[in-house]
Design a protein that fits this description.
It is globular, with a radius of gyration of 21 Å. The protein is built from 14 helices and 2 strands. The longest helix has about 45 residues, at about 115-155. Strands 1-2 form a two-stranded antiparallel ribbon. Helix 3 (about 70-80) crosses helix 9 (about 230-260) and helix 5 runs antiparallel to helix 10 (about 275-305). With about 400 residues, it is an all-alpha fold.
Length: about 400
């Protein structure tokens, strides 16, 4: 996920109204996102500025890979080997809903973001609901960053205590390779056979799997920046395939290395004395430093829109109250992280309540709302089945993760 905050999906105003009048000019988004032609045709200027296929593929992988790479072995420990099948299943479902989301983008030439899709489907309340869910997801990811930092710092410095972008893909790949090296060369081995399924832990594992594929908020920007948009479906499919190989690979390695003793982050199981373990921990520690502020900034910017006009009209007042607001938001994330310091369970909660809603439920609802009258009965049944699955994961996963969090508290 999240952290899917690198995109301009989060930079447009929260309260922007969707335009429905067409013109003959080409509306360009910022340079880092690319283009959006008003008539969805590729003009010469757009084709020159758009992303290539491989750039978009890398962006798609960057959207999907993140802190979830640390928790997929824990998902295997919670749900058994069946969790690896769950990862593949969620990859298929979320890949399908990403393509549904693209079709929603194509329904109106002025739809540029996920929030625009919500507004086109259900009016201003649709925009509000999508916006709230996206910002809650971002906020929750920043809390996960803090918990991850605290857990790995405690593992790196066990004697210390306290009472109180593109780099994502590279970091994830380095962690997978490092874990494999430790298993092969550093004496850990792959001796655990594991269990086929842990039924009581399966709902939590489902939430963790859902979290791994919560990139839908940023896919509209990947689509709009693609030089040849007919390649988007292939970009999405390949992104999901490559990321699933990473996720399933580290889950299988971690589960055979440490079995049911796996902790919420695999880095916490790695032996202290192995140099490769120190490398993996430092990679894990450094990555959130660049992501925390970037992820939290869109949340603060959205909240600043609710400041009085008298404040927003003065640069000095805006700077003062903006600083106060940012400070309070940062303090709140620290308080939440200290109150619920359970990386894996909180990730399962986020995956069940927010990620399943954003990545499965909302794309299906919006697609049915926009295209329902044009769809055949089998198509409606297919989308309805995916929607029902998303609702089941959201309700069941949220319930069991909340129960587990309360028990640990």
């Amino acid at each position: 996920m999240a952290a899917q905050s690198d995109s301009n999906e989060y930079k447009e105003p929260l309260l922007r109204k969707l335009e429905h009048q067409l013109d003959n000019t080409c509306s360009l988004r910022s340079a880092d996102v690319g283009h959006l032609c008003c008539n969805r045709k590729i003009c010469r200027q757009c084709s020159e500025q758009g992303s290539s296929f491989f750039q978009s593929l890398f962006n798609g992988m960057n959207v999907l890979t993140g802190v979830g790479i640390l928790s997929t072995p824990y998902a295997a420990a919670k749900g058994g080997w069946l969790s690896l099948i769950l990862l593949l299943f969620f990859a298929l479902i979320c890949c399908y809903t990403a393509i549904l989301l693209r079709r929603c983008l194509d329904s109106d030439p002025y739809i540029r973001s996920y929030r625009d899709v919500g507004e086109a489907s259900f009016g201003k309340w649709g925009r509000w609901i999508v916006s709230i869910l996206l910002y809650l997801e971002l906020y929750a990811v920043t809390v996960e960053f803090l918990i991850m930092e605290g857990d790995n710092l405690a593992h790196r410095f066990p004697s210390a205590s306290i009472s109180l972008g593109p780099t994502r893909v590279v970091a994830s790949l380095l962690i997978v390779l490092t874990v494999g090296r430790i298993g092969v060369l550093d004496g850990v081995g792959f001796h655990h056979h594991g269990t086929l399924v842990h039924w009581n832990g399966l709902p939590v594992a489902a939430g963790l799997c859902s979290f791994c594929y919560c990139g839908h908020a940023v896919f509209p920007s990947v689509y709009c920046s693609l030089r040849n948009r007919t390649q988007f479906s292939l970009v999405v499919v390949l992104s999901f395939i490559l990321c699933t190989i990473l996720y399933d690979g580290i889950a299988a390695m971690g589960y055979t290395m440490f079995g049911d003793e796996l902790q919420s982050q695999i880095t916490l199981n790695l032996p202290h004395e192995a140099p490769a373990s120190q490398f993996a921990i430092w990679v894990t520690l450094i990555n959130p430093f660049a992501k925390y502020a970037l992820t939290l900034t869109p949340v603060v910017v959205a909240l600043e829109e609710f400041l009085p006009h008298s404040v927003k009209g003065s640069r000095e007042d805006m700077r003062f109250w903006g600083t106060i607001l940012r400070t309070l938001i940062v303090i709140s994330t620290v308080i939440v992280a200290l109150s619920i310091p359970f990386f894996g369970l909180l990730m399962a909660f986020i995956g069940s309540l927010l990620s399943a809603t954003v990545s499965i439920i909302l794309p299906c609802l919006c697609y049915l709302k926009i295209y329902g009258h044009q769809l055949s009965d089998p198509k409606v049944s297919c989308v309805g089945a995916v929607l029902s699955l998303g609702i089941l994961v959201a309700i069941g996963g949220t319930y069991f993760s909340v129960v587990a969090i309360i028990e640990n508290l």
